[in-house]
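Could you help me review a protein record that somebody else here produced? This is what I was given.
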Amino acid sequence: VWTKRNNKERVIKASQPEFLYMICVGALVLGSTLIPLSIDDSVASSDGCDIACMSIPWLFNYGFTIVFSALFAKTWRLNKIMANVADRRKMKVKVTDALKPFIVLFTINT
């Protein structure tokens, strides 16, 4: 919400808000891993506990992949820009170009 409200600020634009959103979503998925961890036999049935236990690695894996892939894509984008600065060429890396590593990493990990 804060990023969306302040997306016109120079610092937010430089931080690539699309990737900030992806990091927030990944952190929410990672944090949601705690919900099935709180379920025990006194609260739910045996089947419910089994489902909760099976969801823990999936939630953690997807959340970590989203966060790591977003950070990797940000780093890749910055590396492309800095490599072209060394060659004294002006280059604009679009968000869709930077999403390619994210999609590849997310697809491989799932």
In short: Helices lie at 2-5, 10-14, 17-31, 34-37, 46-86, 95-109.
